[in-house]
Every structure is written in structure tokens, then in C-alpha cells.
Amino acid sequence: MTLTLGVLLLLGLCQRTISEEPSSSPNSPDDLKFQLPTPTYETKDYYYTPRSIGNLFKMVHVFLYVVQPNFFPKDIVREILQKKFELSMDYGKPESVVLTLQVVQYEIGIIFWAVLGLLFVILMPLAGLCFGLCRCFNRCGGEMHQRQMRDGPFRRKYYALTLLVLCVLMSIGIIYGFMANHYLRTHIRKARTLAESNFRDLRTLQNVTVPQINYVLDQYTTTKKKAVSDLDNIKTLLGGDIQEHVKLKTFPVLDDVEAMAEEIRDTKVLLVSVNKNLWELKKSPEEIYRGLQDVKRDLEQSLKDPVCSVPAQRARCDSIRMSLDQLDNNTYLGQLRLLDNEINNVNGVLQTNLSSLVQMSYQSINNIPERVQKQTTEIPPAVKRTLNYIGLNIKMIAQKVPIQEKLSVFLDSIDNFESNIYRELPRVEKYESYRWLSCLIICCFLTLIMIFYYLGLLCGVFGYKRNATPTTRGCVSNTGGTFLMVGVGVSFFFCWISMLFVVLTFVIGVNMEKLVCEPYQNRKLFQIMDTPYLLNENWKYYLSGKILNNMDVNLTIEQVYSDCKDNKGIYTALRLENVYNVSKHLTIEEHIEYMNNEFAKINVNLDDIILKDEGKRNLLDFSDSGVEQIDYYTYLTETGKSLTKVNLLTYASGLKEHADKLPPGVLKESLTRNIIKIKDIHNIKALPLELQLKELHRQIQELQQRGSGLKVKVTNILDALDSSQKFITNDLPSIIIEESKEYADIIVSYFQYYLNWAKVAIMEEIAACKPVATAFNSAFDVFLCNYITKPMNLFWFGIGKATILLLPAIIIAVKLAKYYRRMDSEDVYEDDENIPMKKPCS
């Protein structure tokens, strides 16, 4: 009956399935993090484990293996459930005889111990009656006379110690009985709380399912918003990526062209400055040279002065005459041509605004996102229409998945089952009170017997006097013997009732443990219930017919329980894909193909973004302007010289030294006058021109540096421009296609992620049925096995041990009482021979 109720409980709690392993969810795209709402359940302990009393349960379990070492009889149980063994109809048939023998063979250990217990129940009252009658006739120890023997003291001590040990062992058994009785009563009272907790969890499971389904549907809206946002932002996402590729390839060369345009402008300014300075320096040195020639002629005339004929002054005059050649010309700037042709060529180049052309290219590249948006205006609306259609399709699929329909049946089953439990609980609690009181009375009677025995031992041991004769024993010792005999009498009166209770609980408890609890824990009970055509001759598997109405699906109770224990969803646990296959319908491959086809239509034309041909011609004209072909060596050589062969101030200082050593006269005056002229020429004319000549020399050096390798530079720039143009013409279209595909894949990936997540959520997470397995486990493992069966087994184990030990305790107590009670007669001894002699009874 319990087994059948358990199966019905499972069927009532689990009318739903799941089967197909969902595909693993891909990595979550940015901003798409879905987390299904998960409930919190009250029943936390899935496996119940007794604490302090658990070791006692294990001890009893070991004893059960000794009593019943046979394995679970699956075949016998199947035959019984298939109604192949009915006493009213099949008695005497060969099949029934064989099945009966199999049952007896399996239960032989239990039957053996039960028969022994029943014999104990039957024989102990008879033995007590016979014992009482025997003592009434002064037999069986009823004679109040104790024969004295040499080993009497030893026997007294031996009997006392043995009885004490037996009492201790029986007391332990009685304690087991009290503990088991208290444990059973305490935990039976927890049944209501446990049931309420499980039912609340089941209702929580039912109540959270609809919000979970709605959450899955709402996340499509979130996904759609993300996709629409990307579609509306195609300018930045797609156009920006294409722009980055173009920038990477074109900006460096456009920067070089921009630098070259700046170079052309700087070169023109430098050419004009060089030409101006060169033109000025070609005229100005003539005045210096004419002044120096006048000084030279004047000094030559002055050196004809007679003073130079004087031997003392002749050498000085000759030195002055020889130095006059230093006043000749040192440079020939007039031979250098002006740079008018080069200036005219550069001016021709500057007629084309190269910088403007470069800025136009920059602007074209910066406008790529806008051009992409304008050229793809028809794609986002088409994709949005597809997304709306997908959303409607997903809502239809959610309506067709039979989870909510099964949940309504599920709730009705819970209501009916809960009402039945609460209706029967008061009756169960009432009968539990009777059971508890009965067990308590048994334990108390056994405790009373133990009290008599302990009091008998206490009074007998401490009241016994070695020097006292059997007829002169004290009252305490005599009371101890009386307590022992009272304990014996109560034992005979009560032990058979105790043993009868032990036999009943033993047979029930052992079979419950071996036929229900153990098979439940090792799943063999599920295997029995999953036997084909067992519960319904038309259904191979009961759940397949009951829930799916499909005989071809192997839906077993064990599989449903395992899936629920692993907290899988109802869809997977009950293989609901056989009713409605979510994986088959929750797919958008054809819509993805349509969207990919739409994105494949993207065709962005960017051929005109690079530098125009006139810009390239402008660069070629600059390379041919002649700036690089100028004879810089000649210009630098001439401009690198000083205007005079000697420093005029130094030369004037030398003349002054000569003049100071000449006697007054015409020559000295001439030298003094020309010294002044030379200084004036240096300070007024030569010095500014020297500075201007140095500046011209520096400008020519700079111009040489600018013009050096100009053709190579221009060629490299033109090659880079050609490479960029080739990239735009040949490679950019494929890059646009690739970026468009990547852009499309990102949008599509949102929905692929959502669909994969939705499949996982529907199959594994929505209505995760762990509360069902928890409720089933609470009914069997916790309530039936741990709350009832195990303490029941501990009770009969403890009380049975105490009851069985009453038999040797009775014998020992009867023998020991003779040593404590006051006798009516005793043996007489002769002092010499110490031979006991029987004293006549008084």
C-alpha cells in the first residue's frame, strides 16, 4: 500500500517532462545578460541525516542484514504487483505454489525469528503458570529450605554478578526503547511542518513558472531593442569600422601630401628670399671694392715718398707695398645667376591649391559614415520587419509549449493531495498517541521489572551477613530476595505481551526497511515501478501513457526522479519535446538567412575619396621645378667666402703700427688718412654685407636640404597614393563586404544568443522540478524511513533484547533469591567432620 501511494504521489507531483539536451549557450554579447528569476525554497535538507541516534540506527541496520541477508526480490515484487498471486483465485496452482515458496525463501530469516518470538509468547505464560503451580507444591525452589554447600558463597556472588550484567544489558535495551519511542513521537509531530513546507515549495514552483515564461518573452524585447539600436546606429558601427580601415591606409599618405604642400609654400618663400639677397649682394660689394682700390692707389703713390729711400725705412715701406694686394676682390657674386626661373616654376605649381585637394580627401574620408548611412537606408526597415515577425513567432511558440497547461493539472493534484493529507493527519496523530502510550507502557513495565531486580540486588548484596544462617538472615536481605521474586512474577506476567509487540513491530519494520527504504535509496524500487506493462497492461511505461499518451517514449519514474533531483526543468524531466519540440520550432535560420541577404546588399561607393589627378600632376610639376638641379656647390662656395681677403680692421691696425714708426711727413699722413678710410669701409659697408652674405649662405643650405632628393620624395608619395587608390579600388569592396557581414553577424548573434538561452531556460530552468523530488524524498526517505521505520526498528531491537534477556534473568533471580531470603529451615553441621546434615522442617 505504501509503495502504491508513493508512486501515485510522484505521478501527482510530476505531470510534465523534459528530454532533449539543450545546446550550450554562446558567450553573452555586451549588454545582454539574462538571468531567469529563481525562487527560494523552504525545504533545504534534501537528504535527511539523523544526528546522535544515527549510530544506533546503523547498529540495527547491521543486525537486519544478519536477519535478512537476501537481496531485494525484484522478480517476486513484479509478480505480486502484476496480480499473479491471489489466494482467493490462484491458490493451489503451480505458479502460486512456486511464488509462495519464493516468498517463504526470501522471508525465511524473518519467519524464523518471528516463530521464535511467537513460541516465546505462547510458552512463557504456560511456563509461568507451571512455575507458579510447582512452587505452590514446594517444588521449583518453593521450599523454604537452603542446603548448605561448600561453593555456596561463590554461587551467590556468581548469580549476583550475572544478574547485574543481565540487568545492565536489559536496561540498555529499555533505554533504546525509550529513545526510539520519543524520537518517533517527536518526528511524527514534525510531519505537518514538513508537509506544509513541501506544499509551499510546490506552490512556489507553480507560481514562479508563469513569471519565468513571461521573463523569457520579455527578453526578446530587450534583444530586439539592442538590435534596433545597432540598426539605427549603422553610421557609427558599420560606417565607422569602414572609415577606420580607410584611415589606416590613406591618412599617412595624405599627411605626406599635406606636408609636401607646406614644403612647396616654404620653398617658394625661401627661393624669393634667396633671390632677393643674391640680387642685393651682387651690387653692394662693388662700392667696397672701389673704395679699397682708391686706398690701394693712394698708398702706392705715398710709398714713392723719399722716406722709403732711407735704409732704415725701406724694409717697412716694402712690407706695406707687399700687403696692398690683400685689398683686392675676394668674391665674384656677380657670376651667380638669379633664381627667377625656379621661382616662376614654383609659382606655377602653387597655382593649384594642393592643400585644398588634400582637405577634400580628408573630408571625403570623414564623411564615410554618413555616406554608408545614406546608401543603406532601405536595409534597417527590412530587418526591423523581420524582427517583428520573429517576435510574434516566439509568442506563438510560448503559447504552444504545454508547460502552463500541465501546471494547472499539477496544481489541482496538489490541492487534492494536500486536502487528503490534512484530513488524515488528525487521525494519524490520534493513533500515534495510542502507539506512543502503548510503547511507553511496555517500556515502563520493563523498567519496573528492572527496578525490582536492581532493588533485589541492592538489598541482597548490602543486607547479606556472612555470619548469619539462612534462618537468621536480616530483613534487608530478605527484602532483596522478595524483590527478586516479585520481579520474576511480573516478568512471567508481562514478558509475553512485550514479546508479542516486538514480533509485530519486527515483522513490519524489517519488511519496511528491506522492501521499501533500501530499494528506494538504491533506486531498485523505481526499477520495479518502471517494469513494462506493470501498472497498466496497455502501456509499456506508465508515465509515457499517463502524461504523454505516447507508447514509443521511454519515460520512466526513475528518470523523472533523477532529473528533478538534479533540478532540471519540467520540460526535460517529462520529455515534453515529444508533445511540442521547442528546438524544432524555436529557430530563426530562415530569418537569419533573410537578414544576411539584406545585409549582403550593402554596396558603398568610396572611389573618389583619394587625391585627384590634378594633385598628382601638381606634385610632379614641383619635382620638375628645378629646385633640385640648382648648382648649390657654386652658390655655397661663393657665399661661403668673406668679402675681403683680409680682415680690414686687422689690416688697418698693421698700417697704424707702421705709421707710428715713420717720421712725420707725407707718407705718414697718407697712412693715417687711409687707415681711417679702411675702418670706415669696414664699419659702414663691409660689416652689414658680411652678415647678409652669411644669411644667404644659410638660406642656400636650407634650400639645398629642401631640394635634396625631391624627386625621390615625390615618387614615393605618388607610389603611396597609387597604393592607396589600388586599396580603395580593389581591396576596399571586400573589406566593406566583410565589415557588413561582421555587422550583420553581431545583430544576428543577439538573437542566436537569445534563442539558445531561451532553449536552455525552457528546457532546464523554467519550472525546475527539484521541489517535486524533494517532496517525494520527504515522503519516503525522511517521513516513512527516517521518521517511522528506523525508530520502529530501534524500538523492537531494544525492547526485544530486554525481553529475551528476561528469560535467563528469571532463572538467575530465582536461584539468587534463595541466598537472600530468610529460610524456614536449614542444614545442621557437626563440628568435627563439617558434614552437612538435614535439619527436620519445623
From TrEMBL:
Pfam families: Prominin (PF05478)
Transmembrane stretches, start-end: 110-137, 158-179, 434-462, 483-508, 794-814
Topological category with respect to the lipid bilayer: Multi-pass membrane protein
InterPro entries found in the cross-reference section: Prominin
GO terms under biological process: camera-type eye photoreceptor cell differentiation; glomerular parietal epithelial cell differentiation; photoreceptor cell maintenance; podocyte differentiation; positive regulation of nephron tubule epithelial cell differentiation
One Gene Ontology term of the molecular function aspect: cholesterol binding
GO terms for cellular component: apical plasma membrane; cell surface; endoplasmic reticulum; endoplasmic reticulum-Golgi intermediate compartment; extracellular exosome; microvillus membrane; photoreceptor outer segment membrane; prominosome
Coiled coil: 686-713
Subcellular location: Cell projection, Microvillus membrane
Family affiliation: Belongs to the prominin family.
Descriptive protein name: Prominin 1
Species, as recorded: Myotis lucifugus (Little brown bat)
Gene (name only): PROM1
